Amino acid sequence: MNLSKGEREGAAAEVAVSVKNVGMRYGDFYAVRDASFDLPKGKFLTILGPSGSGKTTLLRLIAGFGQPTSGEIFIGGQPVSAVPPHKRVIGMVFQKLALFPHMTAAQNVAFPLKMRRRDARTIADQVERYLDLVKLGGFDSRRIHEMSGGQQQRVAIARALVFEPDLLLLDEPLAALDVKLREEMQLEFRRIQKELGVTTINVTHDQREALVVSDEVIVMNDGVIQQRAKPVNAYRTPENAFVANFIGVTNFLAGPVSSVSANEVAFRCAARELRGVSVGSGPAIEVGASCSGAIRAEQIRIAATPDRLGTLAFQFAGEVIDAIFEGERMVYEVNVAELGGVSLRVFDHDPIGHTQFLPGERVLVGWNPKDMHVFGNNHSQN
Ligand SMILES: Nc1ncnc2c1ncn2[C@@H]1O[C@H](COP(=O)(O)OP(=O)(O)O)[C@@H](O)[C@H]1O
Ligand SMILES: [Mg+2]
Q1: Cα(222) to centroid(ligand 1), Å
Q2: Taking a C-beta distance cutoff of 8 angstroms, is the pair 152, 131 a contact?
Q3: pLDDT of residue 307
Q4: How far, in Å, from the CA of 247 to the mean position of ligand 2?
Q5: Residue of 243, 231, 230, 315 lying closest to 279 (CA atoms)
Q6: How many Cβ atoms are within 10 Å of 138's Cβ, its own excluded?
Q7: Which of 108, 196, 269, 327 gives the lowest tally of CB atoms within 10 Å of its CB?
Q8: Where are the domains of the chain?
Q9: Would you say 293 and 372 are in contact if contact means Cβ atoms under 8 Å apart?
């Protein structure tokens, strides 16, 4: 993989964590394969991927729990393997918080400092400071089993940070929380990380979380890093079909390539010729080979009449199959006969007119070719 602009800029800053060609093999199975990245000091990185993609394995190796079967990891320039786990200055929060339920919030937060034999005055000051940081000032004598899920989460964060680690590792700590609390805690993580400037690696399968909290995102699948980018770039310019599919709601239209020029690709989809741009790496896009055009649900317009679609270069007649009211938007499934009867998912925000199309209605859908990303297909996908 070539270095992205972000990676080159990162190389100039002080590197906090360096992962070099790391692999983790169990028998014949690679849980992580040839993973490499540098993380500049003070950045918030999220490793995003589906369940089983190797996120926890990679995070545990960074924490120094177990040795990679190949490659090496450096923290602050030192090989992790050279430092025993209890000597590493790493804060961790996992999905299972492992708080002491019958102890108070303050006793839980004090624990890492007691382990490190800090004096009583320092412990009291630090505990107060970090409980304030997570907005639990005044809760110091509350016992863990008397606290809500969100409050317990805050205690766990305070405990992970109270000894001022060089690195904070988070393994899906928010996965068990309900949506509203999870979204609130995502913003809290971001606020706290910005306030302290602690280098953070967060692991999640939740794309929204990755986009919201991170300076940078690494997308993983089947143990392999698919893309490393700033959230907006992972979303807008996915490197391959996996990333395009995993982040956002994406429609794929497949067909044989008819022409390629610069980074524009034309391909045949049933009765029509479509065009799009090729931005990623991955399988080659050659005339005659199969490709997939990816278009996001929010980049497709839906309307009753052509004047409402304006100047969009591609327009198709379709029929509404399903219409789902999601509050702030409508989600439609539209069948397009001209494109081989494909069903397209379309988001529609119409805060002024409140238009709602009904199943069975004839509509038009359209998009701009520049919003369609074309990826070469592997032979196995044909
Ligand atoms: N100790 C192990 N022995 C064998 N396979 C393992 C072991 N640990 C993890 N794996 C496998 O490695 C893959 C990645 O696991 P994991 O890193 O936990 O994924 P994630 O955190 O992304 O869900 C999974 O297929 C898992 O079954
Ligand atoms: Mg995991």
Answers
A1: 10
A2: no
A3: 87
A4: 18
A5: 243
A6: 10
A7: 327
A8: 5-240, 249-381
A9: yes
Tokens standing for residue 201: 């690696």
CB-based neighbours (< 5 A) of ligand 2, an ion:
56
Q: What is the pLDDT of residues 205-231, one digit of tens each?
A: 999 999 999 999 999 999 999 999 999
Q: Which CATH superfamily is domain 249-381 in?
A: Nucleic acid-binding proteins (2.40.50.140)
What pLDDT score was predicted for residue 342? 95
Beta bridge partners of 374: 293
Residue 39 beta carbon below 6 angstroms from any ligand 1 atom: no
| % residues pLDDT > 70 (the chain) | 96
Contact by Cβ (8 Å): 38, 17: yes
CA separation (Å) from 191 to 181, 185, 289, 374? 15, 10, 48, 37
Closest CA to 374 of 300, 292, 259: 292
Q: Which residue lies with its CA nearest to atom 5 of ligand 1?
A: 26
Task: Quote the pTM value.
Answer: 0.90
Q: What's domain 5-240's architecture? A: 3-Layer(aba) Sandwich (3.40)
Tell me which residue has tokens 């004598």.
141
Beta strands 224-229; 216-221: pairing state: antiparallel
Q: What is the pLDDT of residues 49-78, one digit of tens each?
A: 999 999 999 999 999 888 999 999 999 999
Measured from the CB, is residue 53 less than 6 Å from ligand 1?
yes
Give me the half-sphere count of Cα atoms (radius 13 Å) on the Cβ side of residue 88.
25
Residue carrying the six token digits 């309900």: 178
Locus of tokens 């110091």: 140
Tokens 């429609």 found at: 251
Question: Quick one: how far is CA 197 from the chain centroid?
Answer: 20
Pick the residue whose CA is nearest to atom 14 on ligand 1: 54
Q: Which residue has the tokens 């509050």?
A: 327
